[in-house]
Amino acid sequence: MKVVVISASPRKNSNTQLAMKHVFEHTKSKQVDVKFINLSEEQVECYRGPDEEYNEVTKNAARDIMDADVWLIGSPIYNSFFSSALKNLFEYVNYKKTEGKVAGMVIMAAGNIGFIDVQTLITQLLSYFRVITNPKAVFLTVESITNNILTEEFAKERLNEMVDGTLKMATRLQE
Length: 175
Fold this sequence. Notes:
The chain is α/β, with parallel strands linked by helices and 175 residues long.
């Protein structure tokens, strides 16, 4: 099984990135082929249309997403919406190559606001790509992070459960 973990915050040292690094490490322990796309470090170009030429990082990110069986996506909430960097990344993805994939999600916010709205928006985006979404998203606030470390044990447990549940869904769908 191929898995891609996406940290959709464009900010350096973002809280979303910290959570998704935990997701990546937990996923690696599951004996799957896993890749990490970190939009704060990767130089994914702004989408300019289908006939343009893009750098290798951008092409590889799109290829990794389309090749993966499972997507584990983490996005911050910006202005009551998911990250525009995530939307930009999905401009490169061919919906004809994504049907039947499974996705789990992590949503990070400064406070307890807008989680369900953003979960709905990401789920709608993934529906366009015909991706089956794990309904058990993980909602985290900045309170689960101290000194740039994911410290809240309950948050780690929820992230692990989301990974495990999403991988289980994908395995069952492949049977």
